[in-house]
């Protein structure tokens, strides 16, 4: 999965806080070689196809609910305004023109669908009744004025109610977690954490029909090539029979299911863990847990290792070293004065890590290991990956972070971030295009400015730093 892919896929989560498909005729032997979960039924000990009568997997949405409604057209209206990105395909006129050609655009994708093995019947069936959901144009280009601080983000996602439900999920599906952990080496608590944070344990999965959303985005707006692949892959999923149309409901960008798979991610990572012939990551807990683990494993998860450690950073530390590009052993960090706040030793001093200081010199530091980078492949936001790792530790029985956050600091609004970038550019520190979105270029520019005025070069944007840039 690409970083852009995941950023779009999990837009709904951020907004709250701010495998090739096997042919149906494949032999069991082929399935066993290509799918580690198909060797035997991991969760019952039965061979695939020999499940006892009535042993149907309990849906993850239990208790039983009314059947999901058939796909419907979105009712939320488009603003009718140009997109904030300024992209020529996001002008109101371009959007209206593309929307008027929507039916022709969808029909033009039939040859590509046929090359993927989708039948004419399936294509006609699953594209019937689609219409452009232009509200997605507003969502694609939305740039919220106000953002949340890292501590507010964590407070919202890692809370007692969600943790209690996570422990229930771990107990309810213990045989499944046991088997998947043995097969993949992926930590059950990380899987349960992703489940909890992505969809609040299947209660907030999104309500847009994925085929309609991806068709809209394949025909209208600035990401058509990317979303054409997602749309055609969604049709593959339905044609293959892994999921039903009513199960393909999700975020505006097309992510679906309790752990929010994009269609192309489903194709790469979904597995039929219980051997029932379907890869159901929506309502089958067997497949859901195993597929999420398979995703992390293929992205490089290191079995038996943690994601990172909270550390105390000594006064006067050179925060120019707090950079993902600067990785060294835990022992080397320790020699530079970084210690765990509990006084515990690092279990594996030779492990390589980089330093993250998400709240600057006045907040806790974190030494991030390989598995943190793997979580960031799932979603490339450091705040998200930190929340996943911390949530997993709390589910495991760990406590809150030891050090305090600088809660007196107010998160800068987008307008203030845009001004900060412009002021950094005026002083020659920032060479990008000011957009109000902070990334590595902005942090590096801010660190260089801070160093120039003798302040801790931690790259943490505060109101005080904005005032200093203003010259006040």
UniProtKB/TrEMBL annotation:
It comes from the Bacteria. One of its GO terms (biological process) is peptidoglycan catabolic process. The keyword Aminoacyl-tRNA synthetase does not apply. Keywords: Signal. One of its GO terms (molecular function) is peptidoglycan lytic transglycosylase activity. Residues 1-30 form the signal peptide. NCBIfam families: MltB_2 (TIGR02283). This is Lytic murein transglycosylase. It comes from Rhodopseudomonas palustris.
